[in-house]
Amino acid sequence: xxxxxxxxxxxxxxxxxxxxxxxxxxxxxxxxxxxxxxxxxxxxxxxxxxxxxxxxxxxxxxxxxxxxxxxxxxxxxxxxxxxxxxxxxxxxxxxxxxxxxxxxxxxxxxxxxxxxxxxxxxxxxxxxxxxxxxxxxxxxxxxxxxxxxxxxxxxxxxxxxxxxxxxxxxxxxxxxxxxxxxxxxxxxxxxxxxxxxxxxxxxxxxxxxxxxxxxxxxxxxxxxxxxxxxxxxxxxxxxxxxxxxxxxxxxxxxxxxxxxxxxxxxxxxxxxxxxxxxxxxxxxxxxxxxxxxxxxxxxxxxxxxxxxxxxxxxxxxxxxxxxxxxxxxxxxxxxxxxxxxxxxxxxxxxxxxxxxxxxxxxxxxxxxxxxxxxxxxxxxxxxxxxxxxxxxxxxxxxxxxxxxxxxxxxxxxxxxxxxxxxxxxxxxxxxxxxxxxxxxxxxxxxxxxxxxxxxxxxxxxxxxxxxxxxxxxxxxxxxxxxxxxxxxxxxxxxxxxxxxxxxxxxxxxxxxxxxxxxxxxxxxxxxxxxxxxxxxxxxxxxxxxxxxxxxxxxxxxxxxxxxxxxxxxxxxxxxxxxxxxxxxxxxxxxxxxxxxxxxxxxxxxxxxxxxxxxxxxxxxxxxxxxxxxxxxxxxxxxxxxxxxxxxxxxxxxxxxxxxxxxxxxxxxxxxxxxxxxxxxxxxxxxxxxxxxxxxxxxxxxxxxxxxxxxxxxxxxxxxxxxxxxxxxxxxxxxxxxxxxxxxxxxxxxxxxxxxxxxxxxxxxxxxxxxxxxxxxxxxxxxxxxxxxxxxxxxxxxxxxxxxxxxxxxxxxxxxxxxxxxxxxxxxxxxxx
Length: 832
What we know:
The strands form twelve sheets. Strands 28-31-32-38-37-36-35 form a seven-stranded mixed β-sheet, sandwiched between helices. The protein has a five-stranded antiparallel β-sheet with strand order 5-4-3-6-11, with no helix packed on it. The protein has a five-stranded antiparallel β-sheet with strand order 13-24-15-23-16, with helices on one face. The chain starts with a strand and ends with a strand. The chain has 22 helices and 42 strands. About 40% of the residues are buried. It folds into six domains: about 1-40 and about 170-200, Phenylalanyl-tRNA Synthetase, Chain B, domain 1, CATH 3.30.56; about 50-165, CATH 2.40.50.140; about 215-410, Phenylalanyl-tRNA Synthetase, Chain B, domain 3 (3-Layer(bba) Sandwich); about 420-485, Phenylalanyl-tRNA Synthetase, Chain B, domain 1, CATH 3.30.56.10; about 500-600 and about 610-725, Bira Bifunctional Protein, Domain 2 (BirA Bifunctional Protein, domain 2, 2-Layer Sandwich); about 740-830, Alpha-Beta Plaits (2-Layer Sandwich), CATH 3.30.70. With about 850 residues, the protein is an alpha+beta fold. The radius of gyration is 39 Å and the shape is elongated.
């Protein structure tokens, strides 16, 4: 909502010296979101005056253009000849017209400075201005012609400064109105908020109460509960040729709306002023009574934007005997719109259900100023006064005659009554607010307060549908007291509590991966089936159990993700396209394994959901395991004086999973597996306690190409919830021994098809508690070990926490490890 400061002053006695920025600070403290303050006309500087065209000569030019050599009377600013000579390229003005003249020394918007200069063979001593050149509109088709007199009927005086005379200077507040403060989508609402915050007088432009049902005017028939009130007034004898006054055009432009015609401008102006959307029908084009009803199957409507719209039974319509003539609360129909010849008008001011209008607006992707207001809630008590305000302006500005016969169908609903304890704001806000101050604030907000002891019975005004619950009133008291005054108190942590075991282990995993060289990222949790196709995920894979969003942000990603890999690979593609080719990324987040057709039910907000409702919601939700995924590409170690580069690949992602396992006390062993999107010969599966944790390895080449990532990119993804569940401990830090380490190396000859990881597991099992670390450092296949055999060399490191190991102890542990490998795999120790 854009609100000119001068317009707010008409209804609130604001201090004379307050600026738009100062008022913005006041409104922000009251809880409104003032985004910007535009200083309308602030960049107009210098002698910008009203002038009168005395004469002109049209002079065709060689370039095909015709210019006018004009003499303009600018009063006391005239030259020795009694005027100013000005060259103008526009042809839309006549002798005697009053125009805006920028004299030499004037600065126009954009820093454009005016000076006397020679052009087209003349010295042009100024410039006759168009609207866009003054920064007050976007009309560049011709000169801004003012007419004979100002809006008060006083003839223009040449030489008068244009900025104050035309009201070209104003501060305009741009306010983001939240859904619960729909009444602030009007000058009326914002002026009330400003007056209350500054404790000054407010004058309500809505002063006519809605009368009981009247049926003297144009016949109206309400057939839908989505329209509880409809007001219709007739205005005859409207002069369609009259222009909109300058002040109205300027205010509409400052408020972000363009001027169309006098009658339409009046309805828009009153809507901005009162918050009540209005519509004007050409009475000559109406056929029979106006009926408000739901749309029928197969009906269509051509709206004012010349679009034929297929209607839905949920759409609320305005119809007459000819069929639909308007999409209620959103946009009128083309068949009854005002024309240049319209002289008889029927003014509509109605109340429509906010939910119905919101659904219709979104269904047809048709946002309008009227729909914005109805969605947030419009004051039903303003309809009658707003309709009369339109009729009065049509009479005074367009020469119309307001018909005494009027129609009022329906009534204003009674607001709900609520009782609260006077000390409730103090208890909730955490600061003292006296009973008297609570009553004062609520009464200033229009609330009817009946105080009986410490109990306050509250009835909100008709423009505040957001005040229903006791805590709505607490929020109102907090806003009006000043949100900046609310104390900031950090709750004390309960004794003996802290991070849960899962939180502690998860932090250890994240820290371990960061220490291993990975960078954590956060990706959007949305997914499209095309991404799963590029990952070559089979049709029967659980990752195809998709949970669809009711209102997705993008049609290409209408589902919640079932795997972290698409987001991670998209991050790789985005980074590599910008030259960042060496990447090691990881993400921790939920995936959503759905597939059910039913949506979670929406419980009432009047109270706590029942156990049955909670159970139904839970049953409809997808399974949401927490996953840990990562991806590497490029160089793991860059080339340098110390040696060639080391490429990032499957080794790093396999190690990353093992790093995550060790962070929580698990030693994870990779096992060969096959699963899309990994390369079938370079994919490892990890298990713990008989449960599959996840997979790691190099991505399939076709997947890399399809996802737009470099070849040989590697990735891992494991179920973090399972890892933390099977973790043996809380991940306490290992105690470092100060005693020396004992080193033993063994080489074992085994069958070529025995995995090195399985041999390592056997060695660990046999070595016992003295084994501190074990690493494979050599693999050999050749004639020295025999056909179908291979040699695996391991470095074993032994250490005791409380003593220096003796040679016999180390040798015994080594021999036990070799014996276990021999027992399981027939390993034969080879002499190194």
